[in-house]
Amino acid sequence: MVDTLVGLDLLRNLSGGADLSAYPLDGPMPDLATTETARGRQAPVGSIVREAELSIRETYLRVAIARGHRCLIGTPEDIADGMEEMIVRQGADGFNIMPLTFPDGLRDFIDFVRPELRRRGLVKERREVNTLCNRLGLPPAR
């Protein structure tokens, strides 16, 4: 559980300073002006809120888990579905895996989700080593 004051403060920080304390917690999340201070977090949080039609309370509870990053929870197939959607729809070409527990959560990802991603052809068996110089057709840096 997340304390209300902590949740509101988290949203204030992620929104560039918006004070949501005057709004009903179980009411809809209001549209907030985009600010330069929080632009990097506002877009992903905003898309989460719009997609799921979250209340203020639901927003801070969801955001508290991963600080505004998309959070995939479920079976290995559910997680692979979410990652595949991001690859296909949004052109994602890599992911930062942030398990809730370490090292067990990371082991679970490797042991259960990675094989599902491989089965779908979304992860190569071995990563090809390729430098920026090589990609640009330049000689190796010295």
From the structure above, extract its key features.
6 helices; single chain
Q: Using the alpha-carbon principal axes, give the shape.
A: globular
Contiguous helical run count:
6
The helix fraction, in percent, is 40-55%
Query: Distance between termini?
Result: 53 Å
Give the strand content: under 5%
Radius of gyration in whole Å, from Cα? Answer: 19 Å
What structural category arises from helix and sheet content?
mainly alpha
Topology order in helix (H) and strand (E) letters: HHHHHH
- Ranges where pLDDT stays below 50 over 5 or more residues in a row are none
Q: What kind of assembly state do the chains in view correspond to?
A: single chain
The biggest beta sheet is recorded as:
none
Give the rounded overall mean pLDDT. 84
The number of E-state strands comes to 0
What does this structure look like?
- With 142 residues, this protein is mainly alpha-helical.
- It contains six helices and no strands.
- Helix 1 crosses helix 3 and helix 4 crosses helix 5.
- The longest helix has 16 residues.
- It is globular.
- The termini are far apart.
- 13% of the residues are buried.
- The mean pLDDT is 84.
Briefly characterize the structure.
With 142 residues, the protein is an all-alpha fold. It has six helices and no strands.
Give the helix/strand layout.
Elements: H1 4-14, H2 39-52, H3 56-66, H4 76-90, H5 104-119, H6 132-135
Helix pairs in contact: 1-3, 4-5
